[in-house]
Amino acid sequence: LFICENCPNVQEMDLSSVNFIRKFFFGRQLVPVEGHFEKLRKFSAGKIDWNTFLQLWKLLVSIKEIELAVIVPMFTLNQQLFEDAKVLTIFEIQDLFRVNKRIRNTLEKLQINSFKFATFEAAMYFLQEFRCLEKVGTIDMENFSPESREKMRDLADRIERERSLTVTLTDISDGFLNGI
Fold first, then answer.
1. Which helix (H) or strand (E) covers residue 27, if one does?
2. How large is the angle between the packed helices 120-128 and 90-99, nearest 10 degrees?
3. pTM of the predicted protein model
4. d(Cα 70, Cα 112) in Å, to the nearest integer?
5. Residue 1, pLDDT score
6. 8 A C-beta contact, residue 34 and residue 11
7. Are 91 and 121 in contact (CB under 8 A)?
8. Is the omega angle on the peptide bond into residue 138 within 30 degrees of 0, that is, cis?
């Protein structure tokens, strides 16, 4: 939080090794100044909680690359090394684009090691909102039905052909990781 509040003109921020367990969160609302993070082009962090992610997302109007290990609903009080990834609903996706309309025209690369959506429709809506996105991953299809997994594979193939957008998928439903 100290870095983010006191470096509003930073262009690249790599906080992926802030501490040993790589948890990145504010704990309170960020107090931005006018133009805060307008020059930020690349942001990297380890684990980030939903509230912190949403606060940052609002400010990232010119961002080109975001790299995260995982978005979690919130950090637990005990010092667990593993928290489950947040599963994004279509309503939360709509909130993201409501609070930052400009990001859909700037973001080119979004890498989240475990990126989960509640439904195929939520993932599809998310992907279709971007105009400049070239690469996104890794979308974990664990919550999808078998039919939705097939739709997601088809969508990834289609948007790669039509828009040159590479989507990395994982499917651990068969007991093994299958990067697509």
1. none
2. 20
3. 0.83
4. 6
5. 43
6. no
7. no
8. yes
